[in-house]
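2024-03-11 09:14:02 INFO worker-7 job=invfold-0412 stage=load source=structure_tokens
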């Protein structure tokens, strides 16, 4: 028999086997596919007595998709098929990030013997401060406010009062070593009624810009007069060895200053924002919102801007080192309707005040945070509680220091601080959460308590150092505490499969065909730069001749196909069949921010039907380094564990429509909203077609069909496949059908279904995905119609939309035998050390020749000459046929070699079949794998 197959060039210089060959005509199970690893996840108590639920957690082999669920009741888990060698188990939390990244990783060596008793030494992200000032917890010391300038340097201001406390006083303490020791650096005793002494305000409002310089808000007691301003700050330049008092200048006709928020441009340049005025009988005063600045650590203050406002107050303040600042004066409760304002400071020191109620920021009980990293700022907009905000509630971000704001999340963070553009810490009703993507999503880190403005605060100093003041109200131990953030500075990342892409079919000349999607994920806090990766080709086709372009893309929107949002990182071509290509990328990996890479092929016009193409990448094919120290690092994965891409098979295209020209090949049903051309989303260059409907149209229930005008001829022997890209979002009761008819449309049979008649289910692809549907049941039919049916016949419905693009039908002729041989699960090439285990597996698809007599060859080129294995089970030097017998389907993969301690050198293993005559001849169908053994 003769076939139109271009066989790979197999150059025999004398073939020899160096492997244990299992007898192909007998079913023999795989000798060892992987190890079972079992253990238990034990969750310790946290420093506040809280611990998370383990329900939903998984344990996964890092660098793979091999995982097992953790039993929600017992914490036990069992992972099967764990690859041999050094592996890392990774505890995957369910929508939270309670434990440090390093404590969720467990490294060990895996062999053929099952492993049990594995456990993680889990460490919470938040640990209680090492210690508190000496009078902590004593009677009268229950009112306190902390402020931290680093995870080591912090301050606590106590208001000491109560029965048997005489005199009432304020005490300020400082630690320079994370709470291990404290020193009192400020002491103020409340004076008697005579005179006009100054004393810190009872709300314990203070601010330190570094370990030595700080201010404590104060006032002169028993004196209120617009003629004698008396509110200001105690300030120190020497860590409390000396304190002086400075006065806030006031707007005309006002008295009594209330500072709600401090911020700093630099340690010496402070901003204070608040109000003036008081309702006191016998005094006539005016009410203002105002902003002050000091450029000498608080020793003197300038009144920078003010405006009259009966019901005001600063509800949020932030500043950056460039001199830009954002101040919100947008209270939402009490009194007459507000005139809400936002004040912006430029680098020249000018403040611009705008009346604006689009964002109303307030923690719920007091001022909120406006953290800034460069010109990027965040603020929470509260549209509840009658706040009258004109924009929807949620978290907003500005990239231009407050000029414009964009909503990035539906959640409103009560208090927050950002250590970088990506990593932020937030408090939500007492609970602590963390964001790794600039505030778009938040992961739960700890329960907690407290909700008012004096019971919660959080400070972020860098990506691994932060402090949290937890209010205690409603937490497990009902105790206010201070916690420090724990995240060891360890680098760790992995390469795993990215967007799921089905095996599919391709025709000659196709370009930017998705061949592989990979996800890079940095688990550790250390930023990592991925410089390049090596991609290895495989399949029966000639990669050098047939693939003229290999493209590596940064898949910005993680959709698994090339579109306008993607960035081309590198491109090239294979220098040889089954070769490799070096692709540069230069990608920065940030913690928990996945990066998706997409590999596409550009195919030549001279493709042979049934040839296949694929590629793979392994962890040791990645060139990366840490950003801080430029230390080389590899992604974590089991040894020689390949990530294999989708397989593309060449077929004859018997129908193709990329829908760029509209619906000329189709008959759309007449409907209120018919199928139509659109540019709103597509896979082919610029257009797709779509249909949509909702519950506003009568009658309820119906179909909207898109039917192919001309029937398809599927009469030849072989296989047929329909491929198309689609994107849908379906509310309740919508179902999408792909159907065929062999009788001119009188009757239809479905070959694909998406959605459900279940009234409560919603479905969505999220983006375009490619579907591959088998039409073999209709092979032999000369006239086959195709249609896409948008169905809401279940009656009540809400909303549905369906996009279609790039529709093709492929014909695959009957094919010749396809042998396959792998080393350690990879199409290779594979490099291992002498101590590593080498596993060789084989598969065979007999094509259209099952039962045909054939020569079976299993051979290898070794550093010691040529070897073959005969059907008696002996290793023999020389070259002979391994077995003569009928072809049959050899699947699943059979392990035919499992060995370690091989001598150093290069080995090439072959698996081939040809005509039964004892000679190596054409047509020869084969596959090969290269293995390099290193010291």
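2024-03-11 09:14:09 INFO worker-7 stage=emit residues=935
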């Amino acid at each position: 028999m003769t076939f139109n197959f271009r066989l790979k060039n197999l150059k025999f210089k004398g073939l020899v086997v160096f492997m244990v060959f299992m007898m192909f005509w007998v079913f023999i199970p795989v000798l060892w596919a992987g190890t079972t690893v079992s253990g238990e996840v034990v969750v310790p108590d946290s420093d506040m007595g809280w611990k998370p639920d383990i329900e939903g957690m998984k344990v996964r082999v890092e660098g793979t998709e091999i995982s097992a669920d953790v039993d929600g009741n017992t914490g036990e888990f069992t992972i099967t098929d764990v690859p041999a060698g050094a592996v890392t188990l990774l505890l995957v939390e369910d929508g939270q990030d309670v434990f440090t990244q390093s404590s969720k990783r467990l490294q060990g060596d895996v062999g053929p013997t099952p492993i049990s008793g594995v456990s993680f030494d889990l460490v919470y992200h938040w640990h209680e401060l090492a210690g508190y000032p000496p009078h902590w917890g004593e009677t009268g010391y229950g009112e306190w406010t902390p402020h931290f300038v680093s995870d080591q340097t912090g301050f606590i201001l106590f208001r000491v009062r109560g029965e048997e406390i005489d005199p009432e006083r304020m005490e300020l303490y400082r630690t320079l070593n994370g709470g291990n020791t404290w020193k009192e650096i400020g002491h103020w005793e409340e004076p008697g009624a005579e005179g006009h002494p100054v004393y810190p305000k009872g709300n314990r409002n203070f601010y330190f810009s570094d370990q030595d310089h700080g201010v404590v808000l104060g006032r002169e007691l028993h004196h209120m007069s617009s003629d004698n301003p008396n509110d200001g700050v105690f300030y120190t330049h020497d860590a409390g060895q000396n304190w002086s008092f400075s006065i806030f200048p006031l707007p005309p006709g006002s008295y009594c200053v209330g500072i709600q928020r401090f911020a700093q441009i630099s340690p010496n340049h402070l901003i204070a924002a608040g109000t003036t005025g008081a309702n006191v009988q016998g005094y006539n005063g005016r009410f203002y919102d105002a902003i002050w600045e000091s450029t000498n650590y608080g020793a003197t203050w300038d009144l920078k801007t003010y405006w009259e406002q009966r019901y005001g107050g600063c509800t949020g303040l932030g500043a950056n080192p460039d001199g830009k600042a954002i101040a919100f004066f947008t209270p939402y409760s009490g009194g007459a309707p507000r005139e809400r304002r936002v004040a912006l400071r430029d680098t020249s020191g000018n403040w611009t005040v705008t009346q604006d109620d689009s964002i109303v920021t307030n923690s719920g009980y007091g001022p909120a945070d406006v953290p800034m990293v460069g010109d990027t700022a965040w603020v929470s907009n509260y549209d509840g509680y009658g706040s009258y905000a004109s924009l929807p509630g949620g978290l907003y971000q500005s990239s231009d220091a407050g000029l414009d704001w964009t909503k990035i999340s539906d959640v409103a963070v009560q208090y927050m601080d950002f250590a970088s553009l990506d990593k932020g810490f937030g408090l939500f009703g007492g609970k602590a959460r963390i964001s790794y993507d600039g505030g778009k999503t938040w992961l739960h880190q700890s329960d907690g308590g407290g909700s008012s403005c004096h019971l919660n605060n959080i400070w972020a100093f860098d990506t691994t150092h932060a402090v949290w003041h937890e209010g205690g109200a409603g937490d497990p131990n009902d105790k206010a505490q201070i916690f420090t953030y724990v995240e060891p500075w360890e680098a760790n990342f992995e390469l795993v499969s990215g967007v799921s892409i089905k095996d599919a079919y391709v025709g000659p000349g196709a370009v930017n065909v998705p061949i592989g999607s990979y996800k890079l994920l940095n688990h550790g806090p250390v930023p990592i730069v991925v410089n390049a990766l090596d991609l290895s080709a495989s399949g029966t086709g000639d990669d050098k001749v047939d693939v003229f372009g290999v493209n590596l893309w940064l898949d910005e929107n993680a959709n698994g196909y090339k579109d306008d949002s993607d960035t081309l990182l590198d491109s090239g071509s294979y220098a040889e069949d089954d070769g490799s290509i070096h692709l540069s990328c230069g990608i920065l990996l940030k913690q928990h921010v996945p990066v998706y890479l997409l590999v596409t092929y550009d195919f030549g016009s001279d493709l042979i039907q049934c040839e296949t193409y694929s590629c793979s990448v392994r962890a040791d094919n990645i060139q990366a380094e840490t950003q801080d120290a430029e230390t080389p690092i590899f992604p974590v994965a089991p040894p020689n564990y390949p990530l294999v891409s989708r397989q593309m098979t060449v077929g004859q295209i018997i129908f193709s429509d990329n829908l760029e020209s509209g619906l000329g090949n189709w008959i759309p049903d007449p409907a209120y909203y018919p199928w139509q051309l659109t540019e709103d989303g597509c896979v082919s260059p610029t257009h797709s077609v779509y249909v949509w409907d909702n519950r506003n149209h009568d009658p309820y229930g119906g179909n909207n069909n898109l039917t192919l005008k001309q029937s398809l001829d599927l009469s030849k022997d072989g296989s047929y496949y329909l491929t198309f890209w689609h994107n849908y979002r379906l509310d309740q009761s919508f179902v999408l059908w792909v159907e065929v008819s062999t009788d001119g449309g009188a009757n239809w049979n479905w070959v694909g279904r998406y959605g459900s008649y279940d009234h409560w289910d919603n479905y969505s692809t999220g983006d375009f995905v490619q579907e591959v549907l088998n039409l073999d049941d209709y092979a032999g039919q000369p006239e086959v119609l195709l249609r896409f049916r948008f169905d809401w016949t279940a009656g009540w419905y809400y909303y549905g939309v369906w996009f279609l693009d790039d529709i093709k039908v492929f014909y695959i002729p009957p094919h010749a035998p396809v042998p396959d041989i792998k080393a350690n699960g990879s199409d290779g090439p594979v490099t291992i050390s002498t101590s590593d285990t080498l596993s060789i597996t084989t598969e065979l698809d007999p094509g259209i020749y099952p039962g045909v007599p054939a020569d079976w060859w299993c051979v290898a080129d070794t550093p010691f000459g040529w070897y073959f294995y005969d059907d008696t089970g002996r290793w023999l030097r020389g070259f002979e046929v391994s077995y003569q017998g009928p072809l049959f389907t050899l699947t699943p993969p059979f392990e035919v070699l499992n060995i370690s301690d091989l001598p150093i050198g290069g080995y090439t293993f072959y698996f081939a079949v040809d005509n039964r005559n004892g000679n190596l001849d054409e047509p020869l169908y084969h596959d090969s794998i290269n293995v390099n053994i290193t010291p």
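2024-03-11 09:14:09 INFO worker-7 stage=report msg="Residues 101 and 524 are 6 Å apart (CA to CA)."
2024-03-11 09:14:10 INFO worker-7 job finished
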